[in-house]
Amino acid sequence: LTLLETIPPYWKPMFHSFVKRIGGDPTTPEGRKFLKERSPLTYAKQVSKPLLIAQGANDPRVKKSESDQFYEALKEKNISATYLIYPDEGHGFQRPQNQMSYTALAEKFLSECLGGRFEPITNEKEKSTVEIIEHKAE
Asked: Mind telling me which residue stretches traverse the membrane in this protein (predicted)?
């Protein structure tokens, strides 16, 4: 729902195409109900395994506030989550040091969740701009 409410200005001409593709118009009560029923945020409480969220703070498509909301919903339900925020990235990570950091941190996360080995993280994290926020379920 918030995606359509916060689309970048240069997407405005395509708004009706988006509405048609997703099946709900956020400007109508019926459309808002339809979209809320399909929103990942609605189902955050059903997540049962640790979740990794990675977000470019300057992403014009998926606003950081959406990832913030989802992380907070997981935390509120006491679901383990790791939230990686790259303050100097947009949609997709472009800086090589951030790409390396994300890959290393994702490998470590998967190793911890699934078992197995991971290459020890040396200086990838220090070279990147990543901010790591973690919530471990009690």
From this structure: none
Q: Is the same domain home to 34 and 92?
A: no
**Would residue 44 count as lying in a domain?**
no
Which tokens belong to 104? Answer: 């290393």
Amino acid at 89: E
Are residues 54 and 115 both part of a single domain? yes
Both tokens of residue 107? 């490998």
Helix, strand, or coil here: 126? helix
Is the pLDDT at 75 greater than 70? The verdict is yes
Least confident of 30-39, 58-67, 79-88, 98-107: 30-39
Same domain, 60 and 8: no
Q: 119: domain range?
A: 49-135
Q: Annotate 16-64 with DSSP letters as a single string.
A: HHHHHHHT--TTSHHHHHHHHHH-GGGGGGG--S-EEEEEETT-SSS-H
Q: What is the pTM of this model?
A: 0.82
Distance from CA of residue 132 to its chain's centroid?
Answer: 13
